[in-house]
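User: Some background: our group keeps a shared notebook of sequences we're curious about, and every so often someone picks one and asks for a predicted structure to add to the entry. Today it's my turn. The entry only has the sequence so far, pasted here. Could you supply the structure so I can complete it?
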Amino acid sequence: MILRALEYVLLMAFTVYLGKQVKKPSRFVGRIFAKMMNKSHSSLTDWALSHLAIEEGSTVLDVGCGGGKTIEKLARTATLVCGIDYAAGSVAESQSHNKMLIAKGRVHVERASVSSLPFTASFFDAVTAVETLYYWPDAPNDMREIMRVLKPDGRLMLVAESYKGGRNDWLLGTVMKLIGSNRLSADDYRGLFQAAGYVEIELVEELNKGWICASGRKPLE
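Assistant: Of course. Here's the predicted structure to add to the notebook entry:
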């Protein structure tokens, strides 16, 4: 009994540790998780970006850039892609993954919070956030902070592979709770955009996989 209890405690401790690394990858061990997320989120990102027009010459921000794979994909079209993440491990891996683009001046990555973006107002044509809204400190205010750095008519896209009411919600919902994430329903996403003042709100669901992407535009001034 004592051995079984110890195994349970160790398993729970390891689960909590894994959850923390997924949520906020550390400088060293966390880089492994950031690399893993580059692979696991690649198909989701491709699907979502097929619903977002990035024109040549655009300036784009990726919020919660993780291991930097989304930045690489955006840079295929955009002239400048900036990435921010609050986790040291993610920033380090993203900089390493995009080192050639950084050297060319086409990518910039730094450590920062979505609640206080280190950019001037009306700077970006588009902003993306893949698998990161779960961990935002204050989503309603963070949505307005993103709007501040968007150009008028610029578009924000939020992407998630798990949402309330989606496929396998009964299982994924439990897992996401264990790692302390906030999950929204499709209606919640729409309400979040509306409350922050975005217009032309669009929701797309991949029902077979349980994915969702939600987007909205900053009104013309």
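Suggested note for the entry: The chain is about 45% helix and 20% strand. Residues 2-217 form a domain with the Rossmann fold fold (CATH 3.40.50.150).
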